[in-house]
Specification:
It is a single chain. With about 260 residues, this protein is an alpha/beta fold. The chain has one domain: Vaccinia Virus protein VP39 (Rossmann fold), CATH 3.40.50. It has eight helices and eleven strands. The strands form three sheets. Strands 3-2-1-4-5-11-10 form a seven-stranded mixed β-sheet, sandwiched between helices. Helix 1 runs parallel beside helix 4. It is globular, with a radius of gyration of 18 Å. It binds S-adenosylmethionine. The site of S-adenosylmethionine has 21 residues, from helix 1, helix 3 and strand 2.
Length: about 260
Amino acid sequence: MDPSTVAAHWEANAEAWTRHSRAGYDVYRDALNTPAFLAMLPPIAGLDGLDIGCGEGSNTRQLARVGARMTAIDIAPTFIRHASESEAAEPLGIRYLSGDGMALPFEDASFDFATAFMSLMDMPNQAAVLKEARRVLRPGGFLQFSILHPCFVPPRRRNVRDGDGQPVAVEIADYFETTDGKVESWWFSTLPAEERAKVDPFRVPRFHRTLSQWVEMVVGAGLAIEAFGEPRASVEAAAAEPVIADTRVAPIFLHVRGRKPG
Ligand SMILES: C[S@@+](CC[C@H](N)C(=O)[O-])C[C@H]1O[C@@H](n2cnc3c(N)ncnc32)[C@H](O)[C@@H]1O
């Protein structure tokens, strides 16, 4: 799928995605994925940071609130409009721009760190965005990103549940089938039926790569891998938010941190 078609899909998703995530329906993000990502992040107070594929800016704002000077970029203008409106309402010093992560509009060595929350597996040329991230990092800077776990969320995945509806196993297939913009249609899993009746599901082009391909791309971009994370819901969190209980069986997200040599 060509990059402009990918961008058009995200622009079409952006309005409902912003409304639904701000209403709290992105439970995996809010209850598990972002807290785990932030817990793995090195100290960033006072550093210049870039968030690649920032969406409506929720995670960027979290980084700014702990003291980073943030710039954020997204391919979908509607996401950037919503993020900028939030910045106007509650200024955190974040600079938002529309643009492509695969061709970052920044000088070499502009940032101390970069983040990409759940956006790299949505980009057609992941090797390019990883190289771009390295280019705009200062020597010694790091990129930390989250993606759908390549091993446990390949193109085909199904939760296996017991008689009480509890997840007990995961069935996967097509791990080795890399995809080129295969469109997956879904709503946030907790979105109520009455909302589903009003709005079409998101249509998300996906670019699945195997774990070894990801490692090859990160290392090939000149980043030294220094940390992996595989968030798992605690017993308490899974009881409070049953939708994330399947991450106790196998991880859904993979977090990776790579560093540009100093
Ligand atoms: C799954 S959403 C994640 C949004 C946000 N980071 C979050 O965690 O809430 C993926 C984001 O990547 C953005 N995106 C996709 N392709 C992109 C590209 N080539 N350059 C920049 N952003 C892109 C989409 O517009 C979307 O906002």
